[in-house]
Amino acid sequence: MNFENNLAFAQSLDQADPLSSFRHDFLFPQQNGKPFIYLCGNSLGLQPKAVRKVVDEQLNNWHNLAVEGWFEGDNPWMFYHKELKKLMAPLVGASAKEVCPMNTLTVNLHLLMVSFYKPVKGRFKIIMEAGAFPSDQYAVESQVRFHGYDPKEAIIEVAPRVGEYTLRTEDILTQINEHGDEVALVLFGGVNYFTGQWFDMEAITKAGHAKGAIVGFDLAHAAGNVPLKLHDWDIDFACWCSYKYQNSGPGGISGIFVHEKHFTDTTLNRFAGWWGYQEAQRFKMEKGFLPEASADGWQVSCTQVMPMTLYFASLQIFEKAGFIEPLRVKSKTLTSYLFYIIDQVNMVLGFEQFEIITPLSENDRGAQVSIIAKQNGKEIFEKLTANNVLGDWREPNVIRLSPVPLYNSFEDVFRTGELLLQIAKGII
Ligand SMILES: *Cc1c(COP(=O)(O)O)cnc(C)c1O
Asked: Where exactly are the transmembrane stretches of this chain (predicted)?
C-alpha cells in the first residue's frame, strides 16, 4: 500500500476498516479530560466495557446462590471454564480439550516444566532465547537447579549476532542441531517482549523434535496478537497470560496448552491437585491421583471464577471480531503504517533519530514496534506521555508502541508520528 503522511489519509484508512467500531467496546484512560492514544496493549490491554456486566452477574450468583452456584445458575461455576476453553481454542489454534484457563503465567510455566522438562544424564540442556523476559529466565534457572544441574552448563541462550537486535532463524536452528542429543527442552517465547520479533515457531518445533527434544513456548506476547496453530505445529506445551493482548485485566488468568498426544502419558510428572482429577470422579474424594485426560488435568486448585469472568468478556469480543485472522490483517497494516510514519519523522528531521529494532518483515512481527531513540530517549518518552500518547519505556533506550487492531486506529498512528516530530524538533 502507498501510505501518506497526513490526517485525511489516516482517516480514510479508518473509514475503510471493518474493525473500526470495536474501539467503542473498550474504556480508554484519560489525562486532563482527554483520552489517551493507548499504545500499550502489549503490556496491559484495555478494559472491555462488557466486563462490568459479566462480573456483576457472577456477584449476583454468589449473592443469590452462594455455594449452590457451583452447580446452579446460568453458568454453574463447576463448568464455567469450559465456556472459556471454547473461545480460547480458536485464538491459539488448538482443540478445546488442549487448552485450559488457570493460575498465572509464571506459575503455569513452572507446572508445565515439571511435566515437560525431564532432564537425564547426557540430555539435560534447555535452549532458549537470550534476553527472554526475566520471569522466564528465573523460572528456567530455578527449574534447572531443582533438578540438580548448573544453569551455566544447562541453559543455552541463542543471541543476536553482533550489531543485530533480533535472532536469525538459521542461528536458532543451528544451535538446536549442534547441541542436539544433549537438549531436553527447547523453550522459546512466541513473540519477544523487547523487540517484538515473532519467531518461526513451526521451524523451531520441527528442529527440536528432530533431535528428540520437547518443545514449549511462552506466548505472553503472541496469544491474541498473531495467528497460532499450536496443534498443527505439533508444539508440546505452551502458556500465556491474558492481560496483554487479551484484555483480561491486571494479573488476569493465564492459559495453558498441552498437545493431545500427551494426555494419556502416565510417565509425565505433575504437581497434582484435586481440580486436575478426572472430573466425573472428583467428588468421590478417593486416594490416588487420576488426571483428567485433557489440559484440565494440569489444574491444581479449584477454578478461579472471578478472574475468568474478565477473560470471558474479552474473549467474546474476539469471537465477535472473527477471532485472529481479521485482526491480523489490520494489525499488519497498522504496524506497517507506523514504520512508514517513523521513517517520515526521520526524513523531516534529516537524521535517524528513531531506529526501529522490530523486524521489517511483517511476517516476523506482531502488533508491537520497538524504537530506539538515539538521543534524549527518556525525555521524549515522557513528553509523549504528557501529551496523551501512552506507550512504554524499556531501559536503556527503547520506546515500545503497540497499535492494537481491536482498539487502535490509523489516526492514532498518524497523531503519534506528528507528536514525535514536534517533540524531536523541540517545539513541545
Ligand atoms: C508478561 C510476561 C510474563 C509475566 O508473567 P506473570 O507470571 O503473569 O507475571 C512472563 N513471561 C513473559 C514472556 C511475559 O511477556
From this structure: none
